[in-house]
Amino acid sequence: MAFGKNDKSGPAFVRPWVGRRTPNTWLLQPCLLLVLLLPQGPTAAQVKEVRRVLVFYELGLSSPAVSLLDHRLSIALENSPYQIELYREYLETTLFPGPEEQQEIRDSFIRKYRERRPDLIIAFGPSSLRFMTDIHEKSFPGVPIVFGGTSPEEVDNPKLDSHFTGVWQSWKPEKTLELALRLKPDTKNVFVVGGTSSFDRHLEVIFKEHLREYEKKLNLFYLVDLDMPGLLDRVGHLPNQSIILYTHLGQDGKGTKYIGASQSGPMVVAAANAPVFSPSDVDLGYGAVGGDLESFEKEGNIVGGVALRVLGGEKPQEIPMEKGANVYMIDWRAMKRWGLNEGNLPPGSVVLNREPSLWQQNRRYMIPGVIILLAQTFAILALLWQRSQRRKTEAELKRSENKFSKSFRQSPLAVIITRLRDSYLLDVSESFEQLTGWQREEVIHKMAPEFDLWMNAERRAEFVNKVQAQGRVSNLEVLIRRKDGQTRTMLLSAELIEMDGERCALSVVADITERKLVEDALSNVGRKLIEAHEEERRWVARELHDDLNQRLALLAVNLDVLNRELPPSASNAIVHTAEIKHQIRELGMDVQALSHRLHSSKLEYLGLSAAAGAFCREFSDRKQIPVDFRCENIPRSLPEEVSLCLFRVLQEALQNAAKHSGSQKLQVSITLEADHLRLTVSDFGSGFNMEDALKTLGLGITSMRERLKVVDGELRIDSRSGCGTVVSARVPYHEKSVVARAASSGA
């Protein structure tokens, strides 16, 4: 079994009754008081009877399987008609495997519940079931026991009396192997990976027994006694036409303990050069393909259902024991990684983590976009049609205006016609009323500022100026205050039109408040991923610099000592050791350079100017490409996130230029302008097409954009074939905000 975090805590959970007050509650209070004062008879208010349920788990809260079993069991017990006092105990056989330690733990449980007899005992895991079969008659006579999380092979066919019922696990590695052969029919080699704990050995015996008949047609190898580094190296160099059947690894060959589902399993999957098939549902999600899985979720539901039946009065011997909670379950992402055909899956297989289609991912954004586009197209066509109709008679003009007015008012988006010179509202659609809360009669033929719709008057002035200067505005985000005071985020597009000789704006408005919240949430996730990425780079850089580089230096010193101790006659050996020492020093320099690229200590202690200049010099020496570096007016006390962002963009831009441009010279400049910092990286190479670049270099460009988004920056790339490329990063900078941030940090 594999274990994880529990969803509930404490010895018991009780759902209290919560009443709801109604408008007539005051009428009921005197009646209620009278009822409470009367003698209580058989019809008095019913109080739920208490039932004590004691659960023994094989392992502790670190196991994902325990977390899943406990969660499903808790949900089932919430549906009980009784008030449940739920007690959880953990044998922790992995942490305390010794017989004496286990005996102490079990004796403490017996003493603990000697005077607090449970109404039902649930035993998950082979050790828990053995514990119950050993002490049930003496310590808990007559208490019904429901078990799960074990198979008959694991407990050596224990003797269960009439007080036991539950569900046996059914490990069927042959069905998983058959599934693997269907998905990868060219398989010739099967590597069974496991460990050395007692549970690991139990599964190893089961796998060998069930897979014995396949030894005639396949090469079966059991990797069960290796230490973790050796195992990871072995599974990373398997021959072609191989697969891996993972059993469980709670302890490796050196005695190091692991959590199978969340530690050792993911490490094996990450290192393997062949698809890994797993035994249970808690092993999925880390890159394993899946298989005929023991479903702990399904098992928890079954055990919970049996527990409810026993609490309801049924005797254990009246409830047949079930065998197997298996299901074919596959991780779609792992199938795609190894090129496995989904069409070869058995009927009824459960496929997890299927990638949604483009429409499923973006329909909530595409539909408003299409509506806005259609509305804009409709408005433009209507305006062109209206202009052409002006040449016709007055009667025809009136009829065309009536048609336009009807379409205008029934538009699904809010449509507004405003006179630009004084923000006078000429007309609004019905959707405007729903969007702002203002009725048409309240706003028509009045000035827009009277209703205080715009949260930012400067933003409204910017909108008016753009419409007058450019003739249109597209997808402008603005904040609108509704009549009830709510603030909503709107997407505004407008066209310049002429009505009765006046310049007017025909505006189409869509509410994107919910979409904006989702984009902000995604931005926050991106920020956290970048921070985690930087922390990992910092850790790796320290390990390279402080550990590996020091060990290389020590090796070079030892070679010096060896060289001095060699006799003069061993001239060939002296020359050879000198060459090895030179190679080690070059390797040390490369490791140190890699450490600095991962995390620049100069950036942390000397600031952006010094770190960027040093990187450009090191890059020029390494790539043999001249880099012209210029830095002007850059303060040393920049915010850490701004310095790190610009430094990473510089690294990515230079790497891309050296790799793809073919330029023999690069230019880098970092300048402080009026209210922002600007980083520019220029090459004089072949240039590229942006659409093609997004397909090949898209990850690097996306990384730069995401980093700049964290600090409210912008990325611009200007490139033309044969004319070179200019990468420009712009980050807002206000000295007052920097001083304030420094002061708050000091406080």
Describe the structure.
The protein is an alpha/beta fold. Helices cover 47% and strands 20% of the residues. The protein contains 23 helices and 24 strands. The strands form five sheets. A six-stranded parallel beta sheet has the order 3-2-4-5-6-12. Strands 16-15-19-18-17 form a five-stranded antiparallel beta sheet, sandwiched between helices. A five-stranded mixed beta sheet has the order 20-21-22-24-23, covered by helices on one side. α2 (64-78) packs parallel to α9, α7 (228-235) packs across α8 and α21 (690-696) packs across α22 (698-710). The radius of gyration is 36 Å and the shape is extended. The relative contact order is 0.05. Residues 1-45 and 737-747 have low confidence and may be disordered.
Quick take:
This protein is α/β, with parallel strands linked by helices and 747 residues long.
List keywords for this structure.
disordered C terminus, disordered N terminus, 5-stranded antiparallel beta sheet, 747 residues
Q: Residue share in helices?
A: 40-55%
Strands, total number? 24
What class would the helix/strand composition place it in? Answer: alpha/beta
Shape from CA axes?
Answer: extended
Identify the strand order in the major beta sheet. Answer: 3-2-4-5-6-12
Number of H- or I-type helical stretches: 23
Mean pLDDT, to the nearest integer, reads 80
Give the biggest sheet.
6 strands, parallel
* Whole-angstrom Rg: 36 Å
**Beta-strand fraction estimate:** 15-25%
**Poorly predicted spans:** 1-45, 737-747
Span between N and C termini? 50 Å
